[in-house]
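Q:
Just now I want nothing more than another pair of eyes on a protein record. Here is the record:
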Amino acid sequence: EGGAAAAKAAITARGAVGVQVVAGDVYREGISGITADDIAMADRLGYVVKLLAVVEQPARGEVAVRVHPAMVPTDHPLASVRESYNAVFVEGEAAGELMFYGRGAGGRPTASAVLGDLVDAAVNLRRTPTGYVQRSGSPSGLARARVRPIDELASQYYLTIDVVDRPGVLEKVAGVTARHKVSILKLEQVGLGDEARLVIVTHMAAERDVQATIADLRHLDVVDRVGTLLRVVGNE
């Protein structure tokens, strides 16, 4: 359910952005809702599904930290990270795109990381740490920042909807998305006997608008079930 990744996201935010963040501040979704059909459809559309921990600084004094599965284009560097390997992908204004890659699990890699932390702790006991600038009001020496809630963020989205297979369904679904200003980039229909599954990829949209869209879709008489919602990265 993304608990370990949320802790890593909080640590990354502290180190990369220099603000005080704890795991409880991190919006979190796990992978338990991902189905084999979602993985197959992602492959068909040119994506892989990855659990991402995302840290952003949308404005001075603010930080956005979240963990969730996402659809990543197959040509994105993060798409090739598999098995016990982890990667940190950094986008900087001046430096551009950087990626740090290595094993995130296993006896020797874990022992190496723990030993490195112990050495750092021992050195810090002997001299004043210089990694952070002490700021008033924060016991950790880090600045407090507003953690921007998930409903204020924007992304592209992948959404599946199981509907009755009859004329007029697409018009009703499109009417709901248009009402909430959620623009559709791709739409595919997959037959399911007497039903059909609509697979939608959106343009960039606000989280709150997408959630409002889903709430209204559930009340449509032609919708049997709103299925998987995944964020899509790397396109827009």
Notes: The CA atoms of residues 20 and 142 lie 5 Å apart. The mean pLDDT is 87. The first helix runs from residue 3 to 17. The radius of gyration is 21 Å.
